[in-house]
Design brief:
By secondary structure, this protein is an all-alpha fold. It has helices at 3-10, 16-40, 52-70, 74-93, 100-103, 106-121, 128-131.
């Protein structure tokens, strides 16, 4: 009796390359705004004073976020940004407590693992990277 719903859900497998692209695009677009806040004060001003480490993070968030948004150099960019978010979590959030919900590190933790997944899985079908590969090699 449970096999019928499972069979229907398995048909969704054909959507996974498209949904991977959607995940990449929305995560990168959201991530990009963290950098634009730091560097350009948009869509709101960054609430902390900037130091060289935050300027570097802002630059990586803008450039890396844009590259991921369009799907260019996706795997190395996602891997670099995953490391950036792990660094941000352990430097800025974990000293404030163990649980991400209490130390306000949920976004950094989620970005870290989303980007790590993208570095392993690739950018999906809707990307500049996919356009540059032969059709048989596209994830």
């Amino acid at each position: 009796m449970l096999t019928l719903p499972m069979q229907r859900l398995q048909r969704l497998d054909i959507l996974s390359p498209h949904l991977l692209s959607v995940l990449r695009i929305f995560a990168a677009g959201s991530f990009l705004t963290h950098g634009t806040m730091k560097l350009f004060g948009w869509p709101a001003a960054f609430e902390y004073p900037l130091n060289p480490m935050l300027y570097t993070a802002g630059f990586l968030e803008v450039v890396g976020g844009f590259f991921l948004l369009i799907g260019l150099f996706s795997r190395p960019t996602a891997f670099l940004l995953s490391g950036l978010m792990a660094f941000a979590y352990f430097i800025a959030h974990s000293p404030n407590g163990f649980f991400p919900v209490l130390n306000h590190g949920e976004a950094a933790m989620l970005y870290c693992f989303i980007f790590l997944y993208i570095s392993a899985a690739g950018p999906g079908l809707w990307s500049v990277d996919a356009l540059q590969q032969p059709k048989s090699q596209v994830e």
